[in-house]
């Protein structure tokens, strides 16, 4: 009986579970999922939870029910790769035959004094919920800043504008323009949307310190009622502390078969895994598909493919509130209502077919 331990029930971990359990007649394995929450969360939508435009129960999907799956509601505190043991926060030890590390990411504060202690986060369901509670208590005509002009920061700022039209919102970005990873057509459209909707973009920002109700840009203080940090992520601390090779972003270097180079039974999926692609739910799911395929080959005594199938990502879709959006599908830029409708459709499909 093969024992697979999966750390984290995010997009990658859930996809491995779904693909393994899809083999209904196969009884030669069991899965233990270590996850803090009793449900899978739609992390790509946490910005809306923080802004207060969706309730958290709309962002939950129950894990599959199967005799081969055991749920352990706990946190991983350490991984002993040499011993095939996961240490849990409860003090228990969990042995494994195969390990899937899908612990996700955390905010990266880049050493900015006070940023971790004094800013809000959207990196987990609990933190996004806490952020919403604080934001909804802000006085009428209060001031909120979002640090980071990437996809998360832009969606958070836009959704917050829709949720609290009375607030003064600032979006700080260190570059010459927001969404610098996208074509000019997209970031120009989003910039114009923010101008029209009274969101102040601060380009060439350099956040040097964060206090409870104060943000310092180039050492110049600005009073704020809340500060939301979306300026970068890093792998989960447990993954970062592993004594294995990492890339320049701190992600775990893996082989083409998604496992650690010296540990063929330790696979990595999602934000913890080094990749040429930017982290995304799509990428994590594609990695999960391949890991499940490799596990079946391993258990059947078959060799791994010398060349793995190329991972093809469909594109990126972003929201500007509930009516407008932007996206990049291949090399085609989309702006306006169409990408927003597409994103809603993708989300609906995922929520209603997550067990497939």
Automatic annotation (TrEMBL):
Flavoprotein found in the keyword field: yes
Cofactor(s) needed: FAD
Keyword annotations: FAD, Flavoprotein, Oxidoreductase
InterPro entries hit by this protein: FAD/NAD-bd_sf, FAD/NAD-binding_dom, NADH-Q_oxidoreductase
One Pfam family this sequence matches: Pyr_redox_2
GO molecular function: NAD(P)H dehydrogenase (quinone) activity
Domain FAD/NAD(P)-binding: start-end pairs: 3-288
Record-level GO BP terms: aerobic electron transport chain
Record family assignment: Belongs to the NADH dehydrogenase family.
Name this polypeptide is given: NAD(P)/FAD-dependent oxidoreductase
Organism: Paenalkalicoccus suaedae
Lineage of the species this protein comes from: Bacteria, Bacillati, Bacillota, Bacilli, Bacillales
């Amino acid at each position: 009986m093969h024992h697979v331990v999966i750390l984290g029930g995010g997009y990658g971990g859930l996809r491995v579970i779904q693909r393994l359990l899809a083999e209904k007649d196969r009884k030669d394995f069991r899965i233990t999922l270590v996850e803090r929450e009793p449900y899978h969360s739609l992390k790509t939508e946490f910005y809306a939870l923080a802004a207060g435009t969706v309730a958290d129960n709309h962002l939950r999907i129950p894990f599959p029910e199967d005799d081969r799956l055991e749920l352990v509601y706990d946190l991983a505190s350490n991984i002993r790769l040499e011993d095939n043991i996961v240490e849990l926060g409860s003090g228990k030890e969990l042995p494994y035959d195969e390990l899937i590390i899908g612990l996700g990411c955390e905010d990266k504060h880049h050493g900015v004094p006070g940023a971790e202690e004094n800013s809000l986060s959207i990196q987990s369901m609990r933190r996004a919920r806490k952020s919403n509670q604080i934001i909804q208590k802000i006085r009428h005509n209060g001031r909120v800043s979002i640090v980071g002009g990437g996809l998360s920061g832009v969606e958070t700022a836009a959704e917050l504008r829709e949720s609290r039209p009375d607030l003064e919102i600032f979006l700080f970005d260190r570059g010459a323009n927001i969404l610098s990873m996208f074509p000019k057509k997209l970031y120009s459209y989003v910039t114009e949307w923010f101008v029209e909707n009274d969101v102040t973009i601060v380009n060439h920002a350099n956040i040097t310190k964060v206090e409870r109700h104060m943000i310092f840009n180039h050492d110049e203080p600005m009073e704020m009622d809340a500060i939301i940090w979306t300026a970068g992520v890093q792998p989960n601390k447990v993954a970062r502390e592993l004594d294995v090779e990492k890339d320049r972003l701190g992600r775990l270097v893996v082989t083409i078969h998604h496992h650690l180079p010296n540990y063929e039974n330790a696979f990595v999926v999602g934000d913890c895994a080094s990749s040429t692609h930017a982290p995304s739910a799509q990428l994590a799911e594609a990695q999960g598909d391949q890991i499940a395929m490799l596990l079946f080959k391993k258990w059947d005594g078959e060799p791994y493919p010398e060349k793995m199938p190329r991972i093809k990502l469909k594109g990126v879709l972003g929201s500007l509130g509930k009516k407008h959006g932007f996206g990049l599908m291949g090399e085609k830029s989309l702006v306006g209502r169409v990408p927003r409708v597409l994103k809603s459709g993708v989300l609906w499909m995922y929520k209603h077919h997550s067990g497939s």
